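retry 2 of 3: previous attempt timed out while embedding magnesium ion. Reduced batch size to 1 and resubmitted. Inputs unchanged:
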Amino acid sequence: HEILADNEALANHNRAHFLAHGVYVLNLMSAPGAGKTSLLERTLAELSPRYRIGVIEGDVYGREDADRIEKHGVPVVQINTGGACHLDAHLVHDQLERFDLDQLDVLVIENVGNLVCPAEFDLGETDKVMVLSVAEGDDKPKKYPVMFHVARVLLLNKIDLLPHVSFDVARATRDARALNLDLDVFPVSATTGEGLEPWYRWLEGRIARAK
Amino acid sequence: HEILADNEALANHNRAHFLAHGVYVLNLMSAPGAGKTSLLERTLAELSPRYRIGVIEGDVYGREDADRIEKHGVPVVQINTGGACHLDAHLVHDQLERFDLDQLDVLVIENVGNLVCPAEFDLGETDKVMVLSVAEGDDKPKKYPVMFHVARVLLLNKIDLLPHVSFDVARATRDARALNLDLDVFPVSATTGEGLEPWYRWLEGRIARAK
Ligand SMILES: Nc1nc2c(ncn2[C@@H]2O[C@H](COP(=O)(O)OP(=O)(O)OP(=O)(O)O)[C@@H](O)[C@H]2O)c(=O)[nH]1
Ligand SMILES: Nc1nc2c(ncn2[C@@H]2O[C@H](COP(=O)(O)OP(=O)(O)OP(=O)(O)O)[C@@H](O)[C@H]2O)c(=O)[nH]1
Ligand SMILES: [Mg+2]
Ligand SMILES: [Mg+2]
Ligand SMILES: [Zn+2]
Ligand SMILES: [Zn+2]
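retry 2 succeeded.
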């Protein structure tokens, strides 16, 4: 458990940086392919005209996601873990100097696609936001409970696929809420745009509080 | 790297057990919710009348998957890692005494849903089989290359969803094959049954070789 204790200390160090500069920080987590980058692209299109947003992309290899985000004209850094299945506070800390935190309102950190380990490594974020795609199945809160327990928000994505999969929204929401009474659940589709307005409003409320 | 060296030794120990009893062993891996258990249920329905099949289910928590497999009337054991994001040879070894390997032709080990770490931990299996759902996106071979590199077979699942997602089958197959020239790719749907025959025949061929 030494690893987690070291990580915790560095996460609090990162958090102090963010608080000193009034930056709201999001740790975006999900299984691979749930739609983190797609939802981030939609969110940037909506909010980057009114807020100064930076992005840190975390992946094992490659810069596919950073290339997608760069097209939105916001500062983005790609971290490659080279094998680790999650980001940690150390990897994030090393990239902070590449941003001018005085010029940011929001920093979004997209974590490595993994429903297990990212939940245990605090990065210094303000909020953890997780994405669950309806294509993954409604048993995930029961099978991967820690992520649902630590998240502030659950974006239930790809609801456009509901007619084609057997996903019980009420069951998944009930099971997730049983793990976390404070969890806000937003059914959305990054493809059609359905349900995104309440998510944008929630996010703006959190950004305002961080000021 | 000490952890991997110890694991390797125990994996070879497991493999010796399996070879001595002529059991063909599969390590089934994917991201969470790609369809491992659904494909296993289809495969059991087809093959368990002709082969003696046992199953080890690996999850962080819960026994949802073992409960689904039990309904197919085959011996199944549920391993809970309690936090680890992958199975290892030690966890598997501890469960082998719960099976009579002389009474088995096939042992399927369904790994924890994770596209990263399971690829690095040999369990003593004969073949690694991975599942990629078309709902996850066609960039996964580039972003999570190790799993595609070590797999013997790629089951490209949920092809019934192709009309509703932007997944380029040719690109994903090309990128996966660039990582692994020997990779057999089977486009399938566990829901409709489409494409499963070639997978069943491939499996029967491998079982026969293990005898
Ligand atoms: N039908 C549908 N497809 C979606 C939706 N959101 C994302 N996708 C698709 O899902 C796939 C994965 O989307 P990404 O945004 O790359 O997912 P991700 O979580 O960032 O993936 P990783 O970073 O690799 O873990 C892509 O093919 C997207 O087009 C949605 O709301 N509906
Ligand atoms: N449309 C469609 N849905 C599928 C298909 N195969 C599985 N599913 C659905 O995908 C979800 C997940 O399936 P599972 O078989 O539980 O996936 P898994 O890989 O075993 O999941 P974990 O063990 O939790 O990692 C469920 O809702 C299934 O009904 C398919 O071929 N097409
Ligand atoms: Mg992404
Ligand atoms: Mg399963
Ligand atoms: Zn991990
Ligand atoms: Zn792991």
